[in-house]
Amino acid sequence: MKKVKIFITLKEGVLDPQGKAVQEALQANGFPDVADTRVGKYIEMTLPNEADVALEVQRMCDKLLANPVMEEYSYTVEEGIRS
Amino acid sequence: MKFAVIVFPGSNCDRDMYHAVRDGLGEEVDLVWYENANLADYDAILLPGGFSYGDYLRSGAIASVSNVLNQIKMKAEAGTPVLGVCNGFQILLETGLLPGAMLRNEKLKFMCHYETLVVERDDTMFTSGYEKGQQIQIPIAHGEGNYYCDDVTLEELKRNNQIVFTYKNNPNGSRADIAGIVNKAGNVLGMMPHPERAVEDLLGSSDGLAMFQSVLQHWREMYVTTS
């Protein structure tokens, strides 16, 4: 099996009020240097070894997992996971 | 005229919508469960507010890939009026029937109160009962009603006259104060405020009733011949 980890965040330039609130709370709690905080989503799944991960992930993100109007995504793959 | 209110798991304004059509407008209306729905006989489709699928992933995202949406897309292409309110608007955005997306409210707060809307267009099938520039009182109730689109889309919305309602005092950070937009063909309207909750003076405002009356009026002009 391949383990796929997908990360979805709001696009740069799209206001992320949640990230802003988290950043302000961090800054007020002893982390004054924190910048560019963004809150996103993390989705993990397994796909069969023979899957074309790049294509599948792109299709899943375009169809459902991410909204291209406001979000962008990236992913990592771990090969050889035992089911 | 026969209306369908589409009910998803997690819809919670479906009965308000049903009540607005049955008791406010006085027309035929069914609550239609999203699975195995047959929309062939309906003259208008209403997507109600609520939290379809618990707002999982993104508001409206999972409902937008359900089978019933394929039927709704076909009805929309054929010219049937489709009105999405609140979560219904979010579903229409997620399906791509309307452009843009919803972000969380600028202040992250769920808001539930009356807003003053400005009617920007009185020449759509949903708003012929209003006058351009008219200010109406319609309640909002949402945590993710901050309408977002890029500059190109916003220009397009303006150029095609697709902005139907704006907020007088923008409560949520929506771009260009947008409260409701229509598709290019003019038969798909999405709006965050709830006209179905404003059909009786007893409950605070009846300013939403004219929207349902406009849809009925349009239908009569299209399909009912008068001697």
What features would you describe in this structure?
The complex is a heterodimer of chains A (83) and B (227). By secondary structure, chain A is an alpha+beta fold. Chain A has one domain (2-78): Phosphoribosylformylglycinamidine synthase subunit PurS (Mth169, Chain: A). Chain A has 2 helices and 3 strands. Chain A has helices spanning 17-27, 53-65; strands at residues 2-10, 41-47, 71-78. In chain A, strands 2-1-3 form a 3-stranded antiparallel β-sheet, covered by helices on one side. Chain A is elongated and about 50 Å long. The mean pLDDT of chain A is 93. By secondary structure, chain B is α/β, with parallel strands linked by helices. Chain B has a single domain (2-223), classed as Rossmann fold (3-Layer(aba) Sandwich), CATH 3.40.50. Helix content of chain B is 26%, strand content 25%. Chain B has 6 helices and 11 strands. In chain B, the strands form 2 sheets. A 9-stranded mixed β-sheet of chain B has the order 2-1-3-4-11-10-9-6-7, with helices on both faces. A two-stranded antiparallel sheet of chain B has the order 5-8. In chain B, β1, α1 and β2 (28-33) form a beta-alpha-beta unit. In chain B, α1 (14-25) crosses α6 (209-223). The longest helix of chain B has 15 residues, at 209-223. Chain B is globular, with a radius of gyration of 16 Å. The two termini of chain B are 19 Å apart. Chains A and B meet through α1 and α2 of A and loops of B.
